[in-house]
Task: inverse folding
DNA sequence: CCCTCGATTTTTGTATCCAATACCGGTTTT
DNA sequence: AAAACCGGTATTGGATACAAAAATCGAGGG
């Protein structure tokens, strides 16, 4: 019998630790945009040697979170509002392709079971009278699941990789701005619209309607675009710095 | 006066050397798919120490050319014919987005000058009676340039990065299969069709017709799909191994 | 004959070491 | 006073050292 509990110590523990921590530090602004990332300063902060930190930095550079300085070393990349909007649009485009591919593949009932279940759960969630904070985190989980399953249904490894990579960019994830909705009076309506999208995307896939599936997935990503706009104007009202980062708001999520 | 000749010795020369060489070795099959990449074996072959090799491998893993083995180390990734087709489709999708974005941006004459020039040169090239091998390499250069400029016109850093990354995948580049055309009797006709696409994509951008530009860019990528099919059936005729790699053919390019 | 187990030998992941060079401040010079 | 110069420090890229894990291979047992 296998005695292996979840004591999974990956062989490259230090590197993944550095990668996860550094990514988090960049995303939540602990390492401000434009700041040079001195490896030594990270060494004391994380307690791992330079080597895994450098590996992690290379990965982050490929992901696009840091830039490789010509003179050597890395700086935290600055993301303009336009960059964030572009990421969302690109995600929408690629998820559109995924939806079309899924529809054209004509998956059978078994393959569709999970995503149907997911949509069903979302339906049930939305139907509740009041939406507590727990409900919102459930929503985020289910929403994430829907998007993952959609990509899975496209059955394309390269598409999957490309989409997953872009999700690491700041605010590109499908629910990066759900926390904005949760504060909006029309929150429930937005969720209903999104859920209507989910349902019809699934329907289009079931019917093999590739074009419709694609168009809907793209339209779906516009919700994120709108939430981004709201977040930006909220922030603009709060402090008068126009294009500044959204990091503060995000911490509440 | 600046005495600096092109003695550009980048600070990280070893790493880029390892990256370029390793990428080439993977792409031309010197490192066959499925083979584990032992760092030591690379050390003697390239004459650089493990550290830069390791960096390069991490980058290649992010690019998708090698996979990170759960047990540790890297293996050359296997690309199925479907993977190659998917890469082309994804490139077409993203270039479609680029074309639409370019059209919606309404670039002015100055911004369009280069791509117009490029299309003009392509026109002149196609009009020649006979196409020599030199002409074909000119075509490849100009075609590459057209696609780069298209992405440039979209003015989206994140889109640009995503497209450039996928171009590193095997046979994903816009002219990966032009060498197939060059052997085909209908070669000239295919080039004409492609050029017609180039012209109308530019026209759509000039007129601000985003949807048309997108549709055309996508259609344009179908040429690559067809060339892939031809290459595959060619190879299937030659040796009877169905899904085998296209590497042999590529070496002639 | 095949399978299992164990010792040997690679190979990896991480830490450290070294040389080169970019950065910073003070100094000098015009 | 401003700009160029210079020297010291800090930091990076690359090489190496070392320990732990994994593949390899052979012997022994079923």
Result:
């Amino acid at each position: 019998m296998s005695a292996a509990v979840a004591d999974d110590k990956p062989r490259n523990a230090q590197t993944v630790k550095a990668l996860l921590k550094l990514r988090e530090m960049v995303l939540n602004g602990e390492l401000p945009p434009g700041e040079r990332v001195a490896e030594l300063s990270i060494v004391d902060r994380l307690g791992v040697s330079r080597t895994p930190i450098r590996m992690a930095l290379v990965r982050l550079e490929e992901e696009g979170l840091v830039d490789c300085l010509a003179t050597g070393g890395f700086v935290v990349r600055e993301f303009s509002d336009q960059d964030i909007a572009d990421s969302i649009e690109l995600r929408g485009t690629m998820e559109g392709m995924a939806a079309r591919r899924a529809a054209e593949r004509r998956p059978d009932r078994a393959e569709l079971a999970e995503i149907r279940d997911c949509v069903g759960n979302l339906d049930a969630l939305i139907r509740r009278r009041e939406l507590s904070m727990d409900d919102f985190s459930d929503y985020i989980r289910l929403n994430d699941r829907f998007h993952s399953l959609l990509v899975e249904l496209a059955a394309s490894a390269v598409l999957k990789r490309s989409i997953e990579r872009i999700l690491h960019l700041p605010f590109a994830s499908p629910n990066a701005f759900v926390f904005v909705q949760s504060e909006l009076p029309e929150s429930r309506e937005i969720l209903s619209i999104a859920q209507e999208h989910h349902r019809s995307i699934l329907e289009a896939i079931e019917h093999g309607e590739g074009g419709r599936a694609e168009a809907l997935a793209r339209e779906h990503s516009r919700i994120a675009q709108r939430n981004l706009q709201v977040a930006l104007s909220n922030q603009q009202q709060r402090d008068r710095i126009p294009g500044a980062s959204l990091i503060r708001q995000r911490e509440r999520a």
About this structure: Chain A has two domains: 13-76, 81-251. Residues 11-15, 48-52, 55, 71-73 of chain A lie near DNA strand C (CB under 10 Å from a C1'). Residues 210-238 of chain A form the longest helix (29 residues).
